Amino acid sequence: MKQVPTIAFVDDASALHPIVLEGVRDFNRTLFTGLPPGRDLAIALRDPDSNEPVGGLCGRMNGGWLAIELLFVPAAFRGMGLATRLIAMAEDEARSKGCHSAWIDTLNPKALELYRRLGYEIFGELENYPVGGSRFFLQKKLGPVT
Q: What pTM, to 2 d.p., does this model score?
């Protein structure tokens, strides 16, 4: 008879996260056979003095979609069009890898305005998250590579 594993909360998810993530990705590969494998996407925003990463974009291309998971531009570099450039680079790369659409979510009202200006349309809203606000989910069709 198999032993039942224990279940417990952990204080630091940094070691557990990659185990769960890889388990989910391995399982999903069994469901979606015949599709190209998913690929992570990362674009660094580097400090002009140190060349160290200070922000950027992280996402994943899978199933014909680009999921923009994280996007961050430090306050010192905002207003320079960098978020727009990061998104454009991610979309171009996704198109070149055969993605037909992209999606992103945000809690930030200013980011919501930006994404809508870039052609993203709201397809869902999680109201009162955080309390008093909303989390918006947006999608965009990606045209052919130009």
A: 0.88
